[in-house]
Design goal:
alpha/beta; eight-stranded mixed sheet; 22% strand; globular
């Protein structure tokens, strides 16, 4: 039996690129760049991660396919366009994640349960159509490699929606009332980087686990539901 090359955590950053994000394109692009730079600065951690960056609006566009940040030199570029179609996200991930995990296993790695970091500044324009593919994606019986989903809402995104998107209530966050949206985006990427570094460090420990840091300027979405 072939020896495994190691254990990997696939991480997917799914960023809202709809028209309402236009004023914050600089912060969004800067956040993606800082994430990539942060992982490159931690090669021992980056070795245990594979990063993908997806932009969504009417559809999903790949800004960075699953990559080893130790060798990836490009910086993903975001593009502002269209509306906020959540269904497109979960239909895409439902195909993408099992395919990526199968490929990584074929390369000789063991693969931890993937993680998705979801950032949106608005309510889904497709109503409840996203809930069907989301339910299949997160059902570990139907999708054995179902990801953990961390959902962060800014702008007009509602707390209940983030709770519904996240796979656990403690994985759902919303920007504090009155928080500067541009700053909140920057804080999202800062905490995302810290979460991945801490999770990478935990992979080879006796207690490998996903570490999720709450971004500054954000609060637990479950605490805001019903207010």
């Amino acid at each position: 039996m072939a020896e495994t090359k190691g254990v990997l955590l696939p991480a997917y950053v799914v960023a809202d690129e709809s028209g309402s994000m236009g004023p914050y394109r600089s912060e969004l692009g800067g956040g993606v760049a800082s994430l990539c730079e942060g992982l490159r600065a931690e090669p021992m951690i980056a070795a245990k991660l594979r990063l993908a960056v997806l932009g969504f609006s009417n559809d999903v566009q790949v800004r960075l396919a699953v990559a080893d940040m130790r060798t990836e030199t490009t910086v993903p570029e975001v593009a502002i366009r269209g509306v906020t179609n959540y269904r497109a996200v979960f239909e895409d991930l439902l195909q993408r994640i099992p395919s990526d995990v199968q490929w990584l296993r074929g390369e000789g790695y063991k693969v931890h349960r993937p993680v998705v970091f979801f950032l949106s500044d608005g309510q889904p324009t497709d109503g409840t159509a996203w809930r069907g593919p989301h339910a299949v994606l997160t059902d570990r019986n139907r999708t054995p490699v179902a990801p953990n989903i961390i959902a962060c809402g800014i702008g007009d995104a509602r707390a209940q929606t983030m709770v519904d998107v996240a796979t656990r209530p403690e994985f759902a966050f919303v920007a504090k009332s009155g928080a500067d949206v541009g700053r909140a985006i920057s804080e999202f990427f800062h905490s995302l980087t810290a979460s991945l570094v801490a999770s990478g460090e935990a992979l080879n420990s006796s207690n490998p686990q996903l570490v999720v840091n709450r971004p500054d300027q954000f609060t637990m979405a479950i605490d805001e539901v019903g207010r």
